Amino acid sequence: MVSDRIPPLISTQLTHLLAHCPISIKVEQMWSGCMNSSLLDHFTLVIPFCLEYVRWDIIYNAIYPLAKPDVIFGPEDEHFRPYRGTIDSKNALTDWNSKDPTRLLTLVLELRDYQKKRVAEVDDERLKFEISTMLSREGIEMLMSSGLDKPEEVKFAVPLLDMDLNKMVLGSTWRHQQKIYLQVIYPVGRKYSTTPSAPRLKLVSSPELKSWFSVEESRLPAWLDGMCMAEYLPTLEEMLENQIREAVALVEVRRKFITALAPHFGRPIEADPVFCRKVSFLASSGTFAFLVHISIPLQFPKQQPVLVLQSSQHFNSHNVPIKSPIMNDYPWSPRWETSVMAERIFDFLVEECLNFKRYCNETMLQQR
To answer: Keyword Cytoplasm on this protein (predicted)?
Structure first.
């Protein structure tokens, strides 16, 4: 929500930017830069770019709200001068109209586009070649980064896989389109090398995707000498496609495991019906009632589930139910049938719940 201390003309533009920008921009801070300190006319925008964030300060003048704003770029954009040498050309600032609510949005998007032009003008033969081989790909972002103590480098964010990941898992409630990107970082060189070094590579995904597929667990293919991105990307995408198909199959494997637990623990009181990552049961040993929480890893059954017990009768000094430490030292083999896995977990907890009851009683005594 935009503060009511911002002058109306400025507030209208900022509100329009936050509501209609195709990328998720946030306001990090606001402050006053004029004689009337009750008015806010300076603010810092946090702008996603190449899978990272840049910070730009937008400087208005609350006393003269009709004046066009200044923009101060962050340290990584120290040499970014988008309108230098274009005095006579039309841009978002020369065409400024403070009464038009869309002007700030137009300015921010235009400045982002200038970053791509800036990269294309870099005097580096290798980078020019790499850019030429990737122009046919849609959605690529490019960013030039430099600083006082940092060498110049170019960052690319390359969207991967021509498939709708949202439709890969039945019942998923993702509100936004899930994506996987490759971040590529090249140092800027002035001379062409016959054996250029490999760029820095990193897989990045939408945060929500991690509940089903973790790119952190994907090992990138080796970058061979003399390779370019046009050669590397097909190999990477083929690897990811295979891993995603496996991730789809593993959802059903986890679902079968949860089903196999029911004959021993009864009907779950809570379960993850989409990704099948968590399930909880109400259990008892004599008069001692407790919950069994089972967290199932993405790499199940290679990795065994994690167990936590939670008492229904014992609470700590903050009135929070007492829980056991995480348990994963029980008998396990990924080669067992799911029915055997469920049976071994049940047998383990038959004994372990007695230890947990003693732990709860001792904790209660220490609190007195």
So the answer is: yes
Residue that has been written with the tokens 């962050």 in this structure: 74
Q: In this predicted structure, which of 113-117, 143-147, 179-183 has the lowest mean pLDDT? A: 143-147
User: Of 66, 76, 56, whose CA–CA distance to 151 is shortest?
Assistant: 76
Q: How does DSSP classify residue 64?
A: S
pLDDT single digits (tens) 29-65: 898 987 778 888 899 999 988 888 888 999 998 888 8
Q: Contact 82/112 with Cβ under 8 angstroms?
A: no
pTM of the model: 0.78
Contact 190, 221 (CB under 8 A): no
Phi, psi of 86 (to 5 degrees): -125, 35
Cα-based angle 232, 234, 240 (whole degrees, multiple of 5) = 105
Contacts of 70 (CB under 8 A, 6+ apart): 58, 59
| Count, residues in the chain | 368
Alpha-carbon span 293 to 142, nearest angstrom: 45
Residue 266's φ and ψ, nearest 5 degrees, are 90, -170
**Domains along the chain with CATH numbers:** 3-114 (3.10.110), 122-249 (no CATH), 277-366 (no CATH)
Confidence at residue 188, expressed as pLDDT on a 0 to 100 scale? 82
Q: What is the pLDDT of residue 95?
A: 80
pLDDT in tens, 72-86: 887 666 666 666 555
Strands (E), the chain: 26-31, 42-49, 52-59, 70-73, 141-147, 150-160, 180-187, 200-205, 270-271, 278-285, 288-295, 306-315, 321-323
Strand order in the sheet with 288-295: 270-271, 278-285, 288-295, 306-315, 321-323
Report whether 191 contacts 210 (CB < 8 A): no
**In this structure, what DSSP letter does residue 81 have?**
-
